[in-house]
Amino acid sequence: MYFYLPIALTSINLMLIVGLGFIVGLLSGLFGVGGGFLMTPLLIMFGIQPTIAAATDSLQIVGASTSGTFAHWRLGNVDFKMGCYLLIGGFAGGMAGVQLIKILRMLGNADFVIKLTYVLMLGIVGAYMFFESLNAIKKTKKAKPGKQAPEISAEPRRESRFVSFIKSLPLQTRFEKSGVTHSALLVIVLGAFVGVLAAIMGVGGGFLMVPVMVYLLRMPMHVVVGTSLFQILFTCIEVSFLQAYVNHTVDFILALLLLIGSTFGAQIGTKMGRKLHGDQLKILLAVIVLVVTVKILFDLLLEPSLLIAYKGGH
Amino acid sequence: MGIFNKLYICILVIASAVILFFTADSFSITSNIVPERIAVNSLYHGSRIVISGETEADRDIIIKISSPEVQTDFHKKGKAGGVLWMNIGELEFNPVPYVYLIYTTKDINSMLSESQRDVYVIGYDAFRRHVNVSPAANDAEKENWLGEFIKFKEKEKVYGVFPGTVEIKKSGDKTAYNLFLDWPYEAPPMEYKISVYAVKDGAITDSTEKSLVVEKTGILKFLSDMAFNHEIIYGIISIIIAVVAGFIVSLLFKGRGGGH
Hints:
The structure holds 2 protein chains of 2 kinds. Chain A is mainly alpha-helical. Chain A contains 11 helices and 5 strands. By secondary structure, chain B is α+β, with helices and mostly antiparallel strands. Chain B is built from 7 helices and 13 strands. The chains are: A mainly alpha, B alpha+beta.
């Protein structure tokens, strides 16, 4: 069964889109990422124009992350306080990033630098998460061969210079849900850092926010997933509205079809995540990020079959 | 009053005679398009069109379907920094139609002279000569990018040259032609021009032109009108529906997961 899309102006297979939504929703519920890095290129592959694919995907993420945030909230996995501080930083960072990209473009050859930074960032984050969680899993197994390993036992607890520095920052605040105390300043700055990078790379930033929460804010993985989804929900509401208002690139029917799959996917992903250990979740996310990195690297290194693309795409 | 009435009738009669005279003279090719309007609804997946008609004996037929010609901008891809394939600049093709489909009874180059092909922009050779590409340092570069443009459009299924697809049948001193065509859903809703040319001895002897209207209907039209004319409401409603959908599914699962 095919559906014709009012804005994308193309016909698309219903099962294909609902299925795609389901898979990406599953990833959202499991890892707390929006899944734009996966969904947008796949939609482009199915013949949707890049600008419409990106904008419609952000509306789809609104639905999936609402579904995921509720599911995680019921499990007590959303740190609203942390989420709000990160949002304030992320919002400011996003605005700064948009200005920065204008300056970079004026300097010329910016796209090359951005693409390269994107691939390096994905690769480094993916590889670091992979090896760190692999080590943690090994340690947990040695220390406690039993089934009931405590949730945050794998979190490293070294008192590094970085840790003593952030402990000396002003405005120390207790985040009950995450069980951590940090300077509000640090949280806002980290949120802004992800916001700047996300704006420059044109992605939602979930795959960057999750490692920042895990490694720099030392939050337990399950709270990271819920809080990340909460944050993504608000970011994507803002992006969807701006895309619909300024660019007319949100395809409602396409988003609705994706939503059917992704809202259910997010619920099932949350349930699956409950059965997995924090480090198992991290290692799975690391593998997905690394696969995506390799795919992007191949796309950049191999000659494309078409040497032109409609203007307005990425 | 009576004089005016008589004058009016007189003008009508003369006008009709003039119209009849001219149409009778150029009425040596007919065309009939079924359907002339294609309704695009939510379940639209392309359509079947039949173009048929009659012309004088011993004629070949060319059918050209095209949309209005406009300037179209593209990104061009190339190697940046000598290693990575990415967008390295912009390209402007002008004038080009969004849709350009040619159906004929046989190979275009063998039935129509180059000058005639150029006048009517029939076939890819003529198309290449008709279009400007900017920036292009030389002819070779222009040719190269035009090749990429045609490849891109053919992949979208909105460009194509199909020799031998128009069927002809002789009946007395007439030639009847027929084209069964699968109209691609990739061609967006707009008004298209269908030109039919009768060809003899390398030249076009007669032509006729009809339009094909592809238009959005029903909820599809409603949604796209809202997206472009009431963008704030469209944006807000879209977001509310997405949030509500997420919430409802979440509640459904809460009900199911109640036993946990």
